[in-house]
Amino acid sequence: MTSVLRLDGVDRSFGGRQVLKDVSFDVVAGRMTGFVGGNGAGKTTTMRIILGVLAADAGQVTWQGEPLSRDARRRFGYMPEERGLYPKMSVREQVTYLGQLHGLTADAARRATDGLLERVGLAERGNDLLETLSLGNQQRAQIAAALVHDPEVLVLDEPFSGLDPLAVDTVVGVLRERAAAGAPVLFSSHQLDVVERLCDDLVIISDGSIRAAGSREQLRSAYTTPRFELVVETDAGWLRDQPGVSLVDLDGARAVFDLAVGTDEQPVLRAALERGPVRAFRPVTPSLAEIFREVAK
Amino acid sequence: MNAMQATRLVAAREIRVKLRDRTFLISTAVFLLIAAAATILPPLLSGGPSTVAVTEAAAGPLRAAGLEVLAVPDDAAAEQAVRDGDADAAVVAGPAVLAMDDAPNDVVSALSTEPPVRLLNPDAVDPVVAFLVPFAFAFIFFITSQTFGVQIAQSIIEEKQTRIVEILVAAVPVRALLAGKMLAGTILALGQIGLVAVVAVAGMAFGDSGGLLSLLGPAIGWFVPFFLLGFVLIASMWAAAGALVNRLEDIGGVSMPVQLAVMLPFFAVIFLNDNVTAMRVLSYLPFSSPTAMPLRLFTGDAAGWELVVSLALLLVAAAGFLLAGARVYEGSLLRTNGRTSIRTAWRERETLG
Hints:
The complex is a heterodimer.
Chain A: E1 4-14, E2 17-28, E3 32-36, H1 43-51, E4 58-63, E5 66-67, H2 70-74, E6 76-79, H3 91-101, H4 106-119, H5 135-147, E7 153-156, H6 165-180, E8 185-188, H7 192-198, E9 201-206, E10 209-215, H8 216-223, E11 227-232, E12 245-251, E13 254-259, H9 266-275, E14 278-283, H10 288-296
Parallel strand pairs in A: 3-8, 3-9, 6-7, 7-8
Antiparallel strand pairs in A: 1-2, 1-4, 4-5, 9-10, 11-13, 11-14, 12-13
Helix pairs in contact in A: 3-4, 3-5
Chain B: H1 3-19, H2 22-45, E1 51-55, H3 59-64, E2 68-72, H4 75-84, E3 89-92, E4 96-99, H5 105-110, E5 117-119, H6 127-161, H7 164-171, H8 174-206, H9 210-244, H10 251-272, H11 276-282, H12 289-298, H13 304-332, H14 342-347
Parallel strand pairs in B: 1-2, 1-3, 4-5
Antiparallel strand pairs in B: 3-4
Helix pairs in contact in B: 1-8, 2-8, 6-8, 6-9, 6-10, 6-12, 8-9, 9-10, 9-12, 9-13, 10-11, 12-13
Domain ABC-2 type transporter transmembrane (chain B): 128-326
Transmembrane segments (chain B): 23-45, 128-153, 183-207, 219-245, 307-329
Subcellular location (chain B): Membrane
């Protein structure tokens, strides 16, 4: 039995407009999977289908090899994109209530709530009405609500939007714990730098289709041309004439360049050494934003 | 966890939240005050010593008890005085007390031995009461179904508006969500009118309207099942109306038909309650039968089978509206972009159910 949340050929249309086309990818247990795509690319629809909040027109979602049932989904943790809890209920009471709805006994739900509020830094605000909390704290409450029943699988739509950097760290910490405990964690985000820092695997969706999926390293090597940074002592403009080199950025003695496919970087280094001392020579790993731009084109 | 447990959890939350709602608590207190005042005050206000018709020979002890004595030549004249309304009661040979529809306790207790009381027209309904009772029934049904119906709609909209509905729907079946809300609304509504009934009954006993109580008893007993089904009928419409909109501010637009379905029968029963034919028709129509049928029973106008038939009709209507309301609810619950048309909601089910 593999602990994989798998989407297989999922289609969905709204009123004749197809918003998901043959969406298939895996979310592997114990790994953080980042789900990125532009506005309207289909991230939220995909997540809603995973949670059964929306039905798929075709295809299926399986967990550990079994099609999802309501009972299985009850053990999922979900944080919808457009958030909300009950404004007029205390944080503690509603997190406990959600725990019970997910199948915990009243006692277990209370205990889990207390532990989580402590963990996300809301222990002292637990008895306050949600509407009296700052947006950031409401967001923390939302995280607690998604985690209260110790879910087997986590699906979080934009969990970091609206969080201050400190809260981001708290949430990242909590999510990493869950992943380390063996849960698959799928989260979407617009903040590519956060995804970059956080995800093990990456799924890129654009216009309703999956454009790329795999581990971060795989994607890096698959979707970018090899890029290097060279720092010498004098002007590095001579690089322009090297075979297979295309300059990306030149700033006096510092240059960033791409190599054509099949070109080795060592001859370039030798050429540089022939001209004088080399202060730095290293591969530049492309940022996620760059991969994303490349893939989503 | 099954749907039943989910329903119970949802209902428990709704009730908990409502019991903390100050507006709800105050309105309940006001109802109780009205019920107490309406039953205790009138007998007190109409109080004062009764006038008793009696022959001069027997007048002594009654005068001594502080009663107003109307001296008459004989027992026949005494009875006539009661019938004419010149006296509230008469004491005749036996001794016995005569009265029209209610034995004045002060007269009875003024006699050293408690004499048998013979009522000349025991079933007559005081015209004031005859006006007040229909009004009270219609008013209770109107106010309660309105209050708790709106509450169900508001709770649905709150969940849509805050989007918590997505988390809820991911965890429990949509129908359990709706069932929990309906259950909570029904329990709260019944609880509230139950409290009002207890206070009213206690008030009648305290205010010495025991006779009225025995007349009203069956009507109140039948009012309960009629009320229950009538409430489900109205609440289903409110649930559907609530699910169609996304913001509390928009409820006005969709609630018009529901308001009419509550208001028209209310006014029909109030204004037509002395028109026998109209009341017969109203007592079978599902929206007005919850008030019209118990009323006909109260005025002694309805046969037992009529109650059963009317209740069965109401049951069918309530079940139909509940199913339709559930379908609209399911079809529109997750449509959070603006107002959903009832046709769209009916046709498409968004969720897995």
